[in-house]
Amino acid sequence: MPESILIVEDEPALQDTLFYNLKKEGYTVESVGDGRAALESARRLRPDLIVLDIMLPEMDGFEVARILRKEMTSAILMLTARDDEIDRVVGLEVGADDYLTKPFSMRELMARVKAQLRRARMLREEQAAESTHATRSTQHAILTFNDLALNTTRREVTLNNVVVPLKPKEYELLLFFAEHKSQMLSREFILERVWGWDFIGDSRTVDVHVRWLRQKIEKDSANPTRIVTVRGGGYRFEG
Ligand code: CA
Q1: CA 11 to centroid of ligand 1, rounded, Å
Q2: Going residue by residue through the chain (239 aa), what tens digit of pLDDT does each one get?
């Protein structure tokens, strides 16, 4: 079955170009021109990837991403037009996997689309492999660090037996830390391993996610004891 892509772009000429080019690659493609229609189409189509413009009528791309992130695992490639939008995409949890700044070439877009779909495919395969592995050895499915527990089968984290609501990337980051306990991990290494080498963000992305994680799992996020900062280096998970 071909992979499916939803295009959300209100500029008719660009929407047509995107539609035509992605269709030509053999993907199942749908396109809409505003935020509300994006929600409807995404819920019906459950696309593998959403190409999402930010400035949109009805509801902007940030809001669309925020809502859809909670409902589905589709990769999101955001199209930004301004510097202040880029700051929000990179620095805040809008749930985008990657972004592209307008104007961009179709060749660039295709490369990003393929990279995202490849990552999504790998993630699915990894999860399938992990769940097979987990049923074989359930005793390894839960990683515990005192009152903190990661259930890797259910992708669920608890603190004192209370579920900690984590966003997918926060969970992946915590899992990565947990699997590398007591090791100094540089921001670049974390970025590469948790976000992927083709993620076009910078190490601020790591800092922001660490800050959110600390707020959720540290007793005092201003004086963290679990995820500690290594001066001039990166982070170390102490458990
Ligand atoms: Ca627009």
Answers
A1: 6
A2: 789 999 999 999 999 999 999 999 999 999 999 999 999 999 999 999 999 999 999 999 999 998 998 888 899 999 988 877 776 776 556 778 888 889 999 999 999 999 999 888 887 777 777 666 555 444 458 889 999 999 988 889 999 989 999 988 999 999 999 988 888 898 888 988 888 766 766 778 899 999 999 999 999 999 999 999 998 789 999 99
Write the CATH number for 187. Answer: 1.10.10.10
State the residue range of the domain holding 38: 4-123
Q: Which of 89, 123, 157 is the last residue of a domain?
A: 123
Would residue 130 count as lying in a domain? no
Q: Are residues 112 and 48 in the same domain?
A: yes
Ligand 1 centroid–CA 81 distance in Å is 8
User: Partners of 7 in the beta sheet?
Assistant: 31, 51
Residue 93 sits in the same domain as residue 149 = no
Q: How many domains does the chain have?
A: 2
Q: How far is the CA of 113 from the centre of ligand 1 (A)?
A: 19
Query: CA of 178: how far to CAs of 24, 59, 173, 186, in Å?
Result: 43, 38, 9, 15
Tallying the residues shown for the chain, one arrives at 239
CA quadruple 98, 71, 12, 1: dihedral, nearest 10: 80
